[in-house]
Design a protein that fits this description.
Blueprint lengths: L9 H11 L5 H13 L4 H10 L8 H13 L4 H8 L3 H14 L6 H11 L3 H13 L4 H10 L8 H14 L4 H6 L8 H17 L8 H6 L2 H24 L2
Length: 248
């Protein structure tokens, strides 16, 4: 079944079969995999799930549907759902408890992402990350605030965080608190989004065509929205100023 119907590599199929032994109901495993495939899980994701948690295939598909519906209702992608399925129940419970202690609302989407980060981050790695933030000038309270607003901040490399911090401070418009207030900016590309936009805004401000926006606004806007809000409107204002000067 794994080999022919789901196109698993022979080694993977053999390993899972060895871990499971001879299941009493291969139909149960088939129904679980079929359902996961229906909701959008790729073959690669299915392989990872059955390798890490082979006994997951022996669960009743109806119970799995109930659990996954919670994730779907929160708007999680098939990729995110597949990652959650890799978390062992005991680890999941401990991670949820820790998220609650941090102040997350268990029914919120952002809590789901926090739980995922907590579950996949060892205690040692967590402390190393905290120390790295301390070394960059963030207090533990600052780091917790950023984590609560953007849990995947713990997945961002410290090299990137430091680069963005230096870039923002160099403008003279932002401080370290700007990153604390808008940690989602750390998820944006510095080279393709933030740096070009900061350069454009600097030029426009030097001509008194704009008021400097917040980091949250700079990072959140799509390219079209950014152009409309700043570049196009500044160009219109510039033309009016020129037109007014000529009419005098």
């Amino acid at each position: 079944m794994l080999l022919h119907k789901y196109h698993f590599p022979p080694k993977v199929a053999s390993r899972v079969a060895s871990d499971l032994g001879r299941p009493n109901s291969p139909e149960k495993a088939d129904s679980v995999l079929s359902f996961l495939k229906e909701i959008g899980c790729s073959t690669t994701q299915l392989q990872k799930i059955v390798i890490d948690r082979p006994r997951f295939l022996l669960q009743g598909v109806e119970g799995i549907k109930v659990k996954i519906k919670v994730f779907q209702d929160l708007g999680l992608s098939p990729e995110d759902i597949a990652r959650f399925l890799l978390i062992k129940p005991d680890t999941m419970r401990k991670s949820i408890d820790k998220a609650k202690e941090m102040g997350f609302c268990p029914s919120s989407k952002i809590c789901i992402y926090a739980v995922r980060v907590i579950a996949f981050t060892s205690k040692g790695t967590w402390e190393v990350k905290l120390q790295s933030f301390r070394d960059m000038g963030f207090s533990d309270s600052d780091t917790l605030t950023m984590f609560k607003r953007f849990p995947t901040v713990f997945y961002v490399s410290m090299k990137k965080i430091d680069k963005l911090k230096q870039l923002l401070l160099a403008t003279g418009k932002f401080s370290i608190s700007s990153i604390i207030d808008s940690p989602a900016s750390l998820g944006c590309s510095i080279e393709n989004r933030l740096e070009p936009r900061l350069r454009i805004l600097g030029i426009l401000e030097s001509k008194n065509l704009i008021k400097w926006p917040s980091l949250g606004t700079i990072s959140a806007l799509t390219d079209n929205k950014f152009f409309e809000k700043f570049v196009k409107s500044a160009n219109y204002l510039s033309q009016r100023v020129v037109s007014g000067t000529k009419s005098r």
